[in-house]
């Protein structure tokens, strides 16, 4: 368990109010991750076929270095990394 900084204002806050640490990420990659996540949330009722088609189109527009950067950032959350990896596979 990490040490709690006594000067940290959030240290005593309930878990749902604690800040979530994010790895260093380039703003353009962060924007792409947020765009993808927003699309997933807003299209929960889409069929798998519709989601796969959107993912294929979305990732086809990216170069390999960008996709790798997004996956690397997302490794903190295995589910997001797996979904992004599937998007990469759909690209080919």
Word description of this protein:
- This protein has 92 residues and is mostly helical.
- Helices cover 59% and strands 0% of the residues.
- The chain has 4 helices and no strands.
- The protein is globular and about 45 Å long.
Distance between the termini: 42 Å
Beta content comes to under 5%
Q: How many strands? A: 0
What helical percentage do the residues reach?
55-70%
Order of helices and strands: HHHH
Radius of gyration: 16 Å
Identify the quaternary structure here: single chain
Shape: globular
Total number of helices: 4
What structural category do the secondary elements indicate? mainly alpha
Biggest sheet details: none
Mean pLDDT: 74
How many structural domains in the coordinates? 1
Low-confidence blocks of residues: none
Would you spell out the secondary-structure blueprint of this structure?
Elements: H1 27-42, H2 48-60, H3 64-74, H4 78-91
How would you summarize what this structure contains?
The chain has four helices and no strands.
Question: What descriptors fit this protein?
Answer:
mainly alpha, 92 residues
């Amino acid at each position: 368990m990490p040490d709690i900084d006594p000067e940290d204002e959030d240290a005593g806050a309930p878990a749902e109010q604690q800040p979530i640490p994010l790895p260093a990420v380039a703003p353009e990659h962060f924007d792409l991750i947020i765009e993808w996540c927003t699309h997933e949330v807003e299209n929960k009722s889409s069929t798998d076929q519709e989601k796969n088609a959107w993912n294929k189109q979305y990732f086809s527009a990216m170069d390999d270095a960008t996709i790798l950067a997004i996956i690397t950032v997302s490794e903190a959350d295995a589910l997001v990394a797996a979904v992004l990896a599937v998007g990469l596979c759909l690209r080919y």
